[in-house]
Amino acid sequence: MTPERWQKIESLLHDALERAPAERRALLDEACAGDQAMRGEVESLLASSEQAQSFIESPAVKDAAAVLGETNYNSMLGRRIGPYQIISMLGA
Questions:
Q1: For residue range 65-89, what is the model confidence (pLDDT) as tens digits?
Q2: Where are the beta strands (DSSP E) in the chain?
Q3: Which one, of 34, 36, 28, lies nearest residue 12 by Cα?
């Protein structure tokens, strides 16, 4: 991919992110005008952006405070904190 093409894709991505999701299709129809490869790149980046926004739904500080507040560390074994599972104690 040439730097010029990447700049076009990046510019189009930023334009699309500034619009409501319902308006993006019309923007891509006009801006890509038959260039399906460019449209695919922008749509892929838009999908990644949407997934990234929900990556951390709650601050890790809350979960860490709950874990640190536990006095019986063995009771934490097997427990899940977000996508992670506690399998053993590292140290005390």
A1: 766 665 566 677 888 888 888 888 7
A2: 80-81, 84-85
A3: 28
